[in-house]
Amino acid sequence: MDKSYLVLSALGPDRPGLVAAIAEEIKGRGGNVEESRMAVLGAEFGVMMLVGGSADVLSAVERELPKLAERLGLGVLTRRTKAQARAAGLPCTLVASAFDQEGIVHSLADALGKLGVNIVSLETSTYHASMSGAPLFRFEAALDVPRGVGLASLRAHLVEVSKSLDLDVDLRT
Fold first, then answer.
1. Which of 40, 68, 138, 162 sees the fewest Cβ atoms within 10 Å?
2. HEC states along the chain?
3. Per-residue confidence (pLDDT) for residue 1, from 0 to 100
4. Do 51 and 74 have their domain in common?
5. What does the pLDDT read at residue 87?
6. Which pLDDT does position 119 carry in this prediction?
7. Looking at the structure, do residues 128 and 75 belong to the same domain, yes or no?
8. In sequence order, what are the residues at sequence separation of 6 or more whose Cβ sits closer than 8 angstroms to the Cβ of residue 88?
């Protein structure tokens, strides 16, 4: 059997049981959740899944998902994809933190993009400092740094961004 892949994205009001219902629908059609990312943002629950199975299985999942989405009050989007080849670059992790302010995500993503660095995954959060209660921001990304980009050059670009936004930046290999 040739394995096919489908990216499933769903968004709706957060409540217990959503993950189980979506996973049951996939399993019931013969599919498998290969990878996933899920989070509560505000009062909404967002799901992204890579579903694997035969082309017929994925067609069945696509055909039945609208019924499930209506029953659960979810917006659902699917797209066929292929298995991802592992990147040939250097995997790194970038962690940045600062007082919360507009423009941090854009500035870091823009600096990375200009160097051809791919953001493989990204998570950001805001929280309050334990002693002062000041709003703080945290950025953590898994990166794929192309072979032609030296780490010294990447660090220099990140230092420039960090100066303009007063960020603490840590690049780990």
1. 40
2. CCCEEEEEEEEEECCCCHHHHHHHHHHHCCCEEEEEEEEEECCEEEEEEEEEECHHHHHHHHHHHHHHHHHHCCEEEEEEECCCCCCCCEEEEEEEEEECCCCHHHHHHHHHHHCCCEEEEEEEEEEECCCCCCEEEEEEEEEEECCCCCHHHHHHHHHHHHHHHCCEEEEEC
3. 62
4. yes
5. 66
6. 96
7. no
8. 146, 147
Q: How far apart are the first and last CA of the chain?
A: 37
Q: Token pair 């629950």 is at which residue?
A: 45
Instruction: Please check whether residue 78 is in contact with residue 69, taking contact to mean a CB–CB distance below 8 angstroms.
Output: no
Residue 113: other Cβ atoms inside 10 A: 11
pLDDT for res 2:
84
- How many independent structural domains does the chain possess? 2
C-alpha 168: how far from chain center: 22
Characterize the bridge pairing of strands 44-53 and 4-13: antiparallel
- Among residues 81, 103, 124, the one where a domain terminates is 81
- What count of other Cβ atoms lies within 10 Å of the Cβ of residue 119? 14
Domain that holds residue 100: 90-172
Q: Could you tell me if 143 and 119 are in contact, meaning their C-beta atoms sit under 8 angstroms apart?
A: yes
